[in-house]
Specification:
Length: about 550
């Protein structure tokens, strides 16, 4: 099989030679290094390779080529090889332009010339980019096939679950795919058996539950032990950070998640404001890195498993799971985050999962190719989703209740939306009804300024409207505010008095709930910042208080 290519483009023969040499040294055994002295030569070569179906892993181009800018070349190359990593070679003086190109030309990285020694200035960045590409490439050679109806909520639930666990798959809709119908005939299955998941080895699952699917893709669904030092409910950024720090500091740690590791962040197509990732990274990439890190330190992660009840048994904290098992621990960290508020208008309920979706982007975007998509919401998650959908959909309309995006959205997203021609923003507008029998067919919207009502044909409506905490299952255990967010630390002190049920002679630690040894971190906590970085910070910080708590009760094992 042809080795994937690293394509290098520079008009200086000396630089080109040096780069070819350095790349050959480190990557020559796994990749072909192809050189071009002009962008046109490289484009011709890429077109030919594309016809031959030859893989390209990365493109490295000088930022300042004579016939076109390196960033322009990377945009053209992106149409041919969208997954290839795009890297600009730049000089110290040009680094500002390279930083701008991160947003405008969607480049993945820039490398400053000269890069000697390559061990410090070239290989670390390339290792990371190529590992990421290889993960995609190797798994895409082995993808699952998901056969079902276009408007089946189960299809979307399975697709979402696979996407969030970074398992590559292909949608095959029986409505428009001859392959879907062929596959069903080959397996002796009928439309009554849908959805069906077919694995690369030919085995298949009919109408699988998420637990069956998780087992098939080798996720751990049950805890190994009945007792842990630390149990964390939720493996979003806060829970994963708690897992990494807890396990790395010697605590026997278990994370439990009802969906998939990554939490809300895992559904984000591109997180651009997380420290240390100047070109941004997808939420699933961040989650995948954190999962590996937590496991490397010995944390156990079980998913999908829902925590349904907390019980206190003296100094032990007990967690009941959806499958009826009970696990015990010294310390419990609640990192259960939030999910989108429901849109309460006629027609939405029965169309949810059939054209109406809460959140979602990475999975559903692929199903909206050349369609018109409506996005409800005006904050960052709606903005990110619109930009992502615009890559696949014909037209994206944002329906924003406020009179401007500036009220709730970061400037960088507003700018990206303004420069994306197929996104339209309708402000002072909200959805008042959704219509359709088997699936969404149209929506009625209302403009607060003109008082005009309009019914528009629509097949895809994605809702991103504020958040509700996952705390209904904790009623009677931890104190929450009027919106259901968990009170911790000094927020529990009212008019100088601790809660009546607080039995210790110390005040609750920061992040500790009204139950000693039960902490709350991230979005689910009252007063939290609702950002990836702050959730990660709280998850990490909680572990320090966990140690203090354990020291206090002298229980360290
Ligand atoms: C689409 C989108 C884009 C975003 N983009 C950005 C961005 O660019 N930058 C940024 O800083 N922030 C962004 N955010 C916000 C950020 O993702 C959140 O602030 C962050 O994920 C909160 O982390 P968390 O761990 O507290 O909670 P969550 O991420 O909500 O994770 C909570 C986890 O707990 C699990 N859980 C809940 N209840 C239970 C239970 N009973 N049993 C088991 N598991 C349970 C859930 O399944 C979930 O996985 C975005 C959010 C969304 C939705």
């Amino acid at each position: 099989m042809t080795k994937p290519a690293l394509v290098v483009v520079d008009d200086s023969p000396t630089t080109l030679h040096q780069l070819e040499h350095d790349l050959q040294q480190k990557y020559g055994n796994r990749f072909r290094i192809l050189e071009a002295t002009s962008c046109q030569q490289a484009i011709d070569q890429l077109r030919e390779m594309n016809v031959q179906n030859e893989p390209v892993a990365a493109l490295l181009v000088d930022a300042d080529m004579p016939e076109m800018q390196g960033s322009e070349f990377l945009q053209i190359a992106r149409a041919l090889y969208p997954k290839a990593r795009r890297i600009l070679l730049t000089t110290y003086e040009d680094s500002r332009a390279a930083i701008q190109a991160i947003s405008s030309a969607l480049i993945d990285y820039y490398i400053m010339k000269p890069w000697e020694p390559p061990e410090a200035n070239l290989y670390p960045a390339l290792d990371d980019l190529l590992a990421d590409w290889l993960a995609f490439y190797e798994t895409s050679q082995n993808q699952l096939r998901l056969v079902g109806h276009r408007w089946s909520p189960q299809m979307h639930e399975i697709g979402d679950f696979l996407a969030r666990n970074r398992i590559p798959y292909q949608w095959l809709y029986v409505e428009n795919s001859s392959e879907a119908n062929q596959v069903l005939t080959q397996l002796g299955l009928s439309l009554r058996n849908l959805p069906v998941v077919i694995c690369p080895d030919g085995s298949y699952l009919v109408k699988p539950s998420l637990v069956q699917l998780a087992e098939k893709i080798h996720l751990k669904t049950h805890a190994e032990q009945p007792f842990y030092d630390l149990i964390i409910i939720g493996s979003g950024p806060a829970g994963l950070a708690g897992g990494v720090y807890g396990a790395s500091e010697g605590l026997h740690t278990l994370l439990i998640d009802q969906e998939a590791a990554g939490g809300q962040a895992g559904t984000s197509s591109r997180i651009e404001n997380y420290l240390g990732f100047p070109v941004g990274l997808s939420g699933s990439d961040l989650a995948c890195r954190a999962v590996i890190q937590a496991k490397r330190f010995g944390a156990e992660i079980i998913t999908p498993q829902k925590a349904t009840k907390v019980r206190l048994d003296g100094q032990y904290r007990c967690v009941e799971l959806g499958d009826g098992t009970e696990l015990r621990c010294h310390v419990l960290v609640l990192a259960c985050g939030v999910s989108y508020r429901r849109l309460d208008v006629p027609g939405i309920g029965h169309l949810t999962g059939k054209g109406v979706y809460y959140g979602g982007s990475v999975t559903e975007a692929m199903t909206c190719i050349d369609e018109d998509v409506y996005i409800v919401g005006g904050a960052n998650s709606a903005g990110q989703a619109s930009i992502y959908f615009a890559k696949y959909a014909r037209h994206v309309t944002m329906l924003v209740r406020a009179d401007s995006l500036a009220k709730d959205m970061s400037r960088y997203l507003i700018d990206q939306i303004a420069s994306t021609p197929n996104i339209e923003v309708k402000t002072s507008t909200h959805v008042i009804a959704a219509h359709g029998k088997q699936h969404l067919e149209s929506i009625t919207i209302f403009n607060d300024i003109t008082q005009a009502e309009q019914t528009l044909p629509a097949t895809s409506l994605f809702i991103y409207i504020g958040a509700e905490p996952h705390t209904e299952w904790l009623q009677g255990i931890v104190r929450v505010d009027e919106k259901g967010f968990i009170l911790t630390g000094s927020d529990l002190i009212h008019e100088g008095r601790l809660p009546e049920d607080w039995a210790l002679d110390r005040e609750p630690f920061h992040l500790e709930t009204n139950v000693p040894g039960v902490f709350a971190v991230g979005d689910v906590r009252h007063g939290s910042v609702k950002r990836v970085a702050s959730s990660v910070g709280e998850g990490a910080m909680a572990v320090m208080f966990v140690h203090r708590y354990l020291d206090n009760i002298a229980l360290r094992t």
